Amino acid sequence: xxxxxxxxxxxxxxxxxxxxxxxxxxxxxxxxxxxxxxxxxxxxxxxxxxxxxxxxxxxxxxxxxxxxxxxxxxxxxxxxxxxxxxxxxxxxxxxxxxxxxxxxxxxxxxxxxxxxxxxxxxxxxxxxxxxxxxxxxxxxxxxxxxxxxxxxxxxxxxxxxxxxxxxxxxxxxxxxxxxxxxxxxxxxxxxxxxxxxxxxxxxxxxxxxxxxxxxxxxxxxxxxxxxxxxxxxxxxxxxxxxxxxxxxxxxxxxxxxxxxxxxxxxxxxxxxxxxxxxxxxxxxxxxxxxxxxxxxxxxxxxxxxxxxxxxxxxxxxxxxxxxxxxxxxxxxxxxxxxxxxxxxxxxxxxxxxxxxxxxxxxxxxxxxxx
Length: 370
Hints:
By secondary structure, the chain is an alpha+beta fold. The protein has 2 domains: 18-187, Murine Class I Major Histocompatibility Complex, H2-DB, Chain A, domain 1 (2-Layer Sandwich), CATH 3.30.500.10; 194-345, Sandwich (Immunoglobulin-like), CATH 2.60.40. Helices cover 15% and strands 33% of the residues. It contains 3 helices and 22 strands. It has helices at 75-100, 156-164, 166-187; strands spanning 18-29, 37-43, 46-52, 59-60, 108-119, 125-133, 136-142, 147-150, 194-196, 204-211, 216-222, 225-226, 231-233, 237-238, 244-250, 263-269, 276-279, 293-295, 299-301, 307-309, 325-328, 339-345. Strands 4-3-2-1-5-6-7-8 form an 8-stranded antiparallel beta sheet. Strands 9, 10, 13, 14, 15, 20, 21 and 22 form an 8-stranded mixed beta sheet that branches. It has a 4-stranded antiparallel beta sheet with strand order 12-11-16-17, with no helix packed on it. A hairpin with a 6-residue loop joins strand 16 (263-269) and strand 17 (276-279). It starts with 17 loop residues before the first strand and ends in a 25-residue tail after the last strand. Pfam families: C1-set, MHC_I. Keywords: Glycoprotein, Membrane, Signal, Transmembrane, Transmembrane helix. InterPro entries: Ig-like_dom (IPR007110), Ig-like_dom_sf (IPR036179), Ig-like_fold (IPR013783), Ig_C1-set (IPR003597), MHC_class-I_related (IPR050208), MHC_I-like_Ag-recog (IPR011161), MHC_I-like_Ag-recog_sf (IPR037055), MHC_I/II-like_Ag-recog (IPR011162).
């Protein structure tokens, strides 16, 4: 077990964070220049999916969401089919509620919100559900009490019917407190790792990019203990796609090549159970050598020979951690140590499971994607 010391780091990863997965859809009638149905998915407050009745298509709203199709080519097609079904249910819901409230025409809007929250420090999980009509909450799910609460007398019949349907309550509990958190955790557990080299004389740089959320820790360790000397931490920076990047440099000028295996770059992401660890192990580094070349103007320039190997890290189904290595050597000084740059690119993909459509009671409110 690594001994982690974060006194000199910019934050302490032990502080808890609440992660969330939310599904929201809005069905409306007689609203000019606006789709009759719009659905969005949020992970930790970042919108990841979008569907509307005009385009009839579910699309990613973050660049990194495109990578979900690598493991699930039918993902977007399945999401589109699901929301098309919800669009039809939304129309039925509006007509049902107009009858409940003795309404005929005019502008009316139904909004359904449901999902889950997960505390990555305590492990606590909570599910939630809320249905609103014309800007007012009308049905609220109390997951702890396992019951629906109607805020309007017109919805008491629905409240009684749903609460008396134990299979419906059990279904909601399972979807929101068991399946939803698993999907949320999986979305934080998906990544890619690579090792690259910048220049022969630069420090070893461990660089992470494309990760989410922005609560992560990266450090160099020696024999399992975090190093504080000869290291330089950068700030966490934003990427254009709402993900983040960070890096930490290590000066190995005083480290013998045979001591490289004692050093590791450790990356920790909030919500991800396992650390991502990269050893400085010469045995797994592919190399190639060349003699030095003398260029004109009395300038002796080092020959940089690069050997690369590319692989991907996925923490799922027991797949091994694989890396990309690029190694350089200063041809004018065969005794100089290798210089290695580590780049960790952590793409977090939103893995949303199979969506189901559920019609409940005499008002057909689906509780969102499964």
